[in-house]
Amino acid sequence: MANTTETKPKKPIWGKWWFWGIIVFIIIPIIAGISGNGENKKGGQEQQPSQDQKQSQIENIGLSEKKQKQIFFEVVQAEDRATKDAIERYPTPYTDHLQIGQEYQLSEETPLMPELEPTDPLAALQAMEQIPVGTTIKIIKTAMRKNEINPWYNVEAEGIGYGWINSIALIGQFEEAEQQQFNNQIDFEETLAEKYKKELAEEYNLTDEQLKKISVEGITKHWPMPKL
Length: 228
Description:
Elements: H1 17-42, H2 51-54, H3 57-61, H4 65-89, E1 103-105, E2 110-112, H5 121-127, E3 129-131, E4 136-143, E5 152-157, E6 161-166, H6 175-203, H7 208-220
Antiparallel strand pairs: 1-4, 2-3, 4-5, 5-6
Helix pairs in contact: 1-7, 4-6, 4-7
């Protein structure tokens, strides 16, 4: 689960705010229109679209396109902010963020190095011990080795003593905790996104429905988005 190769699983498309906006404001009306046309043909009459139906979402909301583009831009910014804040609160990969003072039980045999930066690497390798499966380790401190991007943990291994564990060696050992961390991240992201967009709606005196209409308009018309 090295940072350079592992990426966070993407939220399913149906978990995005704009997906359901498109369903509600575009797909359903299209289906309803098709159904209505069929019924009209059966009855020998064709229903002409009303003036309201010809109006764009922009006209219905009563805001200029320029203003809506600005709001749409800020909606996307709000969701990006929610994502960043959630990652900061519940960072992944989990094995790169074990907490000092906490204890963890190993599910695999794990190498324990006597030193972080040994002057004699060969001697350090020969002195390396293997921590047995089921052993509890306590995190004492974390450190980074030169030219490496994965943290090392100084730990106290039950029944063995102190040493250093590379976080890479812990990959896959805390699957349940890893999944819970990701679930917490997704849930928190959704909560924050809802909060930030509600604040945006209040700022522009819009309803949730109007904000969704603007979002759908922006997606379908490919309005400019913030650069990542």
